[in-house]
Amino acid sequence: MKRLLSTACSETSFNIAVLILRVTFGLLLLINHGIDKLKHFAEKQSSFPDPLHLGHMPTLMLVLFAEVFCTVFIVLGLFTRIMAIPVVINFAVIVFLVNKSYSGPAEGGAFFLAAFFSILLMGPGKYSIDGAMGK
To answer: What is the model's pTM?
Structure first.
């Protein structure tokens, strides 16, 4: 009981928690959003939201970079902090710019923003390629 009420965190539990966070949110983003956008690239390239006025296709390509390429690296734990930056920027734009245009809830984007910002701050943890390489 004493351990259950403790605010201390062991290094092992921290590393397991970071692993679960990385893999869970990374795979959710990759499977539910990234791969779907990749499969429907031709359909989306001319109508994709463009909140930063870069053009529909360049915006879609930047989102694909964040949601597919960077997410795979985050799940593996390779260059995790660097790869989390584009994902955090992607979801900051979604939460603060794109969702203003729509009346729907912004919870999904906010969850991903919080998760990947936490990963950016905490790093990959011991159970990752970066951790195995001693970075």
So the answer is: 0.88
